[in-house]
Amino acid sequence: MSDNLQNDLQVIFCEMCTEEDRKPARKTCMKCEISMCVQHLQAHLTTPVLLQTHPLTEPMAICGTTKCPQHGKLLEYFCLDDMTCVCVSCAIEDQHRIHNMKTFSTAHKELMEKLNTEQQALLGKTDDENVSLEKWEKSEREKLGRSSVRLIEAVTNLRDIALTSVQSSVTARMVSIKTSNSSMQAAQKEKDTFRFLQLYSQVHQDVEKAKAVDLRKGLEPGSDRDKLVQEIRQNGEQMVKQAGHFWGSLLTLVDPENHQELNATSSDLIFDPQTLDPGMSLSKDKRKIFHSSWLEQCSAMLLIRSAKSVPNFQRWMVRLSQDSDWTIGLCDKQSAKNLKDGHVYGLCYEGDQLSSVTTEYGDCCDASVSSEGVFGQLKNVMATTEKKRRVSSVLITRQGKNGDCTVPRPEVVEVFWNFAASSLSFFNRIGQHQREEIITIEMSLNSWDLAPFVQLAKTNVQNIPQQQWECPCGKVYHKNSNGYTEVNAGFCKRNPPAQTNCSCGAIIGDIRITEVVCELQ
To answer: DSSP labels for 152-205?
Structure first.
C-alpha cells in the first residue's frame, strides 16, 4: 500500500458534503455525532446556542455512542479516578461527584503530558534495566551451571567409590570359586593315594572357602568395609548438599518471592543483649542464646545488629526453641529494654498462640494487617487507647476442616523489612528453600529509629525425680536405693558402687542442662 493511499485512509471527510464533492472535515460535533468541513461548520460557530451546547473536537471517527448509557446525555467529562467518560449528571449526581473530573480537552492535555513524562522516564531507565536483567540472567545461569557441575561430580564420585569397591570384592570371590574348582579337578585326576591325601587338605580349605561365598552380598565384614561405608556416607552427605543447592537455585530462579536460599541471609548479624537473666548466656560468636535450667524463670531482650547498611530492605532469620515464649520484630531502639515504652511491630508466640502485635505512639495512622499468606484468617482484634498510645493484637488462625484452628509454632521465622513500602513480613521457613507467609504488617510512615529485636521468656517444668539419667557424653545411669550407678557397669559387677560424678566430670543427676533457645540463621 502506497503512502498516499495510507494518508487518504486516515483523512476524516465531511459527512454533510455530497458524495461527488466530499471535503476533509475540520471539526467533529460530539452531540450531533458528525464531522464537518469548514463550510458546513459555520452554523456551529456562529449560532450561540450551538456554540454553547455542542462541543467540537478535532476530526475523529465516531466509534460507538457518545451518549451516557445511564442518563442518555452527552459525554462531556473524563473521570481521572475511574478512567472513564461521563455526562454532566454523572459528574453532579452520581458517585463521580467526589472524583477528579476534567473536560475532554483538559484531560487530554494532562494525560498527554503524563504519558510524555512516563515515556521519558521509561526510556531513560530502559538501557540500565536491560543491562541489569542481562547481568542477573547471566549470574543465575552461572550459579545453576556451577551447582549442576558440582552435583554431577558428587554423584559420579559416590558411584565410582561404591562400584569399584564392590567390583573388586566380587572379582576376588569369583577367583576363590575358580581356585576351588581347579583344586578339585587336580585332586580328582591324582591316581596316587598318598599324593591325593596330601592334596586333599588344601582342596578342602579351598572348597569350604568357595562354599562360604555369597555373591549377592556387599563387601565382607571388616575394617575395609567400615572404612568404605564411612567414605560413602561422607560423599553422600556432600551429594545431598549439592543437590539441595541445585534444587534451591532452580526454585529461587523461577519463584524468588516464595523460595529463597537459607544461606542468603547476612552472616554478619549478631545479638546485642539489652537484658539477659543469669539463666541465659550468649555464645562467643554472638549468634546463639543458651539457657541453663537452674532457674525457674528467665528472660532476655536482644537487638539484632548488622555491620552492613542496606538502603531498601533488611532480612533476617531466627531459629527459636519449641518450648519457650518469644516476640520477634521491630522496636524503638531507645525503648529496647522496656517494650511497653516504645513503638513495636512484631510476631508473638505466647500460651500456645501465635499473634501479631503493634504498639504506636503519637498522631499516627493505625497499623493494618494483611493476611495474604497461607495461614488464612485473622480474628479476635483488640485495640486499646491510652493517651497517645495504641496497642493492637491479632490472633493468627487458619481455616481447618472443623473450623478455625491455631497456627503451629514456627521453628524458623524469617522476617523481611521493606523500608520503601514501610511493611514488615513474617514467614515460616520450611526446609532450606521454601517459606510460607504468616502475616504482613503495614506500618505507619514514620522516622522512628527502629531496630530488629527478639524477646525470649523461658519457664522450667517442675522437676520430677529421675529414675534414669543420661550424661551429655552418652553414658546412662540408673537410680536405686544407693544412688546412681552406670547401667553398663551392672553387667561387669554384681553390686556396682554408686557414683556422684561421671567419668567426663559431669555431676550425675544434675538437671542443669544447657540448650539453645535462639539462634541467628
So the answer is: HHHHHHHHHHHHHHHHHHHHHHHHHHHHHHHHHHHHHH---HHHHHHHHHHHHH
CA 310 from centroid of its chain's CA atoms: 19
Give the residue among 405, 407, 326, 327 at the shortest CA–CA distance from 373. Answer: 407
Cβ atoms of 280 and 289 within 8 Å: the answer is: yes
pTM of this structure: 0.48
Enter the DSSP assignment of 56.
E
The count of C-alpha atoms lying within 13 angstroms of the C-alpha of 36, restricted to the half-sphere facing its C-beta, is 19
- How many CB atoms lie under 10 A from the CB of residue 189? 8
**Beta-bridge partner residues of 430:** 434
d(CA 64, CA 71): 16
Its sign, for the CA torsion 82, 86, 91, 93, is: negative
Runs of H (alpha helix) within 324-422: none
Spatial separation of the C-alpha atoms in residues 379 and 400, rounded to whole Å: 14
Q: Give the other-Cβ count within 10 Å of 146's Cβ.
A: 14
**Can you say whether the dihedral through the CA atoms of 64, 69, 75, 81 is positive or negative?**
negative
The helix-helix angle for 193-211 and 104-189 (nearest 10°) equals: 160
Mean pLDDT by 10 residues, the chain (521 residues): 46 86 88 87 88 82 73 84 86 80 86 86 64 76 84 85 79 80 84 83 82 69 79 82 78 66 62 87 87 73 79 82 88 83 88 86 52 46 53 79 72 86 86 79 74 85 57 75 68 56 67 74 80
**Cβ pair 426, 438 in contact under 8 A:** yes
Phi and psi angles of residue 281, each rounded to the nearest 5 degrees, phi first: -145, 155
Give the other-Cβ count within 10 Å of 3's Cβ: 7
Cell (9 digits) for 21: 464533492
Dihedral, 14, 15, 20, 24 alpha carbons, nearest 10: 10
Query: Amino acid identity of 37?
Result: C
Q: Which three cell numbers stand for residue 216?
A: 549377592
Grid coordinates belonging to 83: 478512567
Q: In this structure, how many other beta carbons lie within 10 angstroms of the beta carbon of residue 431?
A: 12
The string of DSSP letters for 472-490 reads TTS-EEEEETTEEEETGGG
Q: Please name the residues in contact with 219: beta carbons below 8 A apart, sequence gap of 6 or more.
A: 165, 166, 169, 225, 228
Looking up cell 500500500 gives 1
CA distances from 112 to 103, 143, 264 (A): 14, 44, 44
Q: What are phi and psi of 171, to 5 degrees?
A: -60, -40
At residue 41, φ and ψ (nearest 5 deg) are -85, -15
